[in-house]
Every structure is written in structure tokens, then in C-alpha cells.
Design brief:
The chain is an alpha/beta fold and about 350 residues long. The chain contains twelve helices and 14 strands.
């Protein structure tokens, strides 16, 4: 074998790689020395994110505007490349939208993953990191939430679709020892790259708290609606485990490295292990960035839980990974992205 073949970087396919978490992970992969290709249908993301990632990393990414439901198009991507592993983000992620359109969510998130796995198997690629969610725990029996807790009944079709995919992947491994799979259950990704060049750019009114706060701070939205202040928590508002998206992206790189030596299916939480309430996050954002966040209290939303935060010790044990960035960095980096990009990528 030639020396350059020995040192050739692994080639990773990232589905959904122009999205919020996907784009940050593509950047982390490039900076770690991987070759990266991206598949994305751009239904809820922007090609500009990848252009910026390429500039930041000073490296090129192969991009295919392909929907993973389109098996022939996905097959052509595999025909043109030799992949070592896949990181799978592609899917729909709005809890509220999933309640209104459950069939769309099951089709995209479950059938799309099955299509991907079938094409992977066809081309002998059996190494996969799957983007799951803490929503699969449903209402947790106790806190913090650890991986050995039983998965509950997710409170919405989005969470249920993630749980179904997890079962599909475990059954896949049971059918063939060729498969090596890491399922990452993460909690509440927030923040943006510290450069302010890439970040979260939701369509319409954001579903997630942090971009909602930052758009209110910038004047793009008039006020923040806080859904419920009568929960059994210290200040009555919901408590969540917020994790910086840069920490999260590095967790995926660590998971890839772990897959190189560990067969089977591993299920791992990615979180900080610390919960912050909605009001605490509002106050932190306001204090750190010296801006006011007008808000009003609205009724609780169906399916929202009082308090959820992770036991993240397994990630440290297996992956050598732990979250580094604190709530201050999350707020600073979000506001820098919002100031630099008041209309997102447009």
C-alpha cells in the first residue's frame, strides 16, 4: 500500500449538514482532518452555512442537494464516493409541527433513516452516528436522566419518531454484527460558533428558546412568550439542560473516533448535567449582553415537562467528552451571531 493511502483521511457523509447542528459538526470534522460530503434537501436550512464553513476551515466540502427519501439520488451519492462513516442529522425537528403533521414526521424521520441504512448496507458502509433526542425519555422517572432509564412515552410525534429510529437501529445491529452505531441523545442545543459566522437560523417564529430570545433582543420580535410559570421548579418556569452547539459538535467527532474501536450499539447522552430555568436563561442573556428581553407569560404548552437535565457521565467515560462552555458563552455567542446576521443567512 502506498504511503499516501495510509494517511488518507476518513471520508464522512453528513446528512442534514447545512442545518444548525450539522453545519457546526461539519466544521469540527474538517478541523479534525476528516474529508466531508454533505447531503441536504435545504427544506429548513441554507446553503450559505456550508459556504461559510468552507471559508472558515479553508477546505472544500462536496455538497449534494438530495432528499434522503429519494433513494435513487442517494444511491448516486454513494456511487460517486467511498464513505467510511455517516453522521445522520437529516430530519424534521419541530415538536409543534409534528403534532399537526405526524405522518410527515414519521415519513421523513423514520422512512428517511431506513432508506439511508439500506443504501449504506448496499455499499458496505456500516458505521453510523445518529442524532437522537432526550425527548425519547418521555416523562423521566427521576433526575438527572441517565441512559439506563427506560424510554418513556414521548409526548409528541417528533420524539416518538426518534424512538422508533433508535429501535430500528438496534434491530439492524442484531441482524448483522457489521453495524457499528452510536446513538447520541442530546438535550437543548443553543449558541453559535464563537466567530459569529454560523448559527441557528430558524424559519418564521422560532420554536426554540434561545433564538426566540435573541430575536426579541434585536427587535426582530416584539416580546418573548414564556409558556407557563406555575411548574414545580424554583421560579415556576421550565428547567432544561442547555448545551453549547460547539460542545455538541465535538461530541460527534468523539463518537466517530469511538466507533473505530467499539462494535455494537452505544446510546449516550450529550448534555451539561446542569439545568437552567427559562427565567434564568432570560436573565443571563440580558446581563451578559446588556440588552432587555421583554416577555409575557402564556399558558403551558401541551407536552412540555417541568424539568429535564442529563446525567452526562457516560459520555465522559466512553467518549472522553464533556461540555466545556458555560451559560455565559452560550448567551454571548448567540448574541454575536444575531448581531452579525440580523436576518440570518439571507
Amino acid at each position: 500500500m502506498l504511503e499516501n493511502e495510509l494517511t488518507k483521511p476518513q471520508h464522512i457523509l453528513v446528512t442534514g449538514g447545512t442545518g444548525y447542528i450539522g453545519s457546526h459538526t461539519v466544521l469540527a470534522l474538517l478541523q479534525a482532518g476528516y474529508e466531508v460530503s454533505v447531503v441536504d434537501n435545504l427544506s429548513n436550512s441554507n446553503r450559505e452555512a456550508l459556504t461559510r464553513v468552507e471559508t472558515m476551515a479553508d477546505k472544500q466540502v462536496k455538497f449534494y442537494q438530495v432528499d434522503i427519501l429519494d433513494t435513487p439520488a442517494l444511491t448516486r451519492v454513494f456511487e460517486e464516493n467511498s464513505f467510511d462513516s455517516v453522521i445522520h442529522f437529516a430530519g424534521l425537528k419541530s415538536v409543534g409541527e409534528s403534532v399537526k403533521n405526524p405522518l410527515t414526521y414519521y415519513q421523513n424521520n423514520v422512512q428517511g433513516t431506513m432508506n439511508l441504512c439500506q443504501v449504506m448496507h448496499q455499499f458496505g458502509v456500516h458505521s453510523l452516528v445518529f442524532s437522537s433526542s432526550a425527548t425519547v425519555y418521555g416523562v423521566p422517572a427521576s433526575l438527572p436522566v441517565s441512559e439506563d432509564m427506560p424510554t418513556g412515552q414521548p409526548t409528541n410525534p417528533y420524539g416518538q419518531s426518534k424512538l422508533v429510529v433508535e429501535q430500528v437501529l438496534q434491530d439492524l445491529r442484531s441482524s448483522s454484527e457489521n453495524w457499528q452505531i452510536v446513538i447520541l441523545r442530546y438535550f437543548n442545543p443553543v449558541g453559535a460558533h464563537e466567530s459569529g459566522n454560523i448559527g441557528e437560523d430558524p424559519n418564521g417564529i422560532p420554536d426554540n428558546l434561545m433564538p426566540y430570545i435573541s430575536q426579541v433582543a434585536s427587535g426582530r420580535l416584539a416580546e418573548l412568550k414564556v409558556f407557563g410559570d406555575d411548574y414545580p421548579t424554583p421560579d415556576g418556569t421550565g428547567v432544561r439542560d442547555f448545551i453549547h452547539v460547539e460542545d455538541l459538535s465535538l461530541g460527534h467527532v468523539s463518537a466517530l473516533q469511538y466507533l473505530e474501536s467499539e462494535p455494537g450499539v452505544s446510546i449516550i447522552n450529550l448534555g451539561t448535567g446542569r439545568g437552567f430555568s427559562v427565567k434564568e436563561l432570560i436573565e443571563a442573556f440580558s446581563d451578559v449582553n446588556h440588552v432587555q428581553i421583554p416577555y409575557s407569560i402564556a399558558p403551558r404548552r401541551d407536552g412540555d415537562l417541568p424539568s429535564v437535565y442529563a446525567d452526562a457521565s457516560l459520555a465522559k467515560q466512553l467518549l472522553g467528552w464533556e461540555a466545556k462552555k458555560d451559560i455565559r458563552a452560550m448567551c454571548e455567542d448567540t448574541w454575536r451571531w444575531q448581531r452579525n446576521n440580523p436576518k440570518g443567512y439571507n
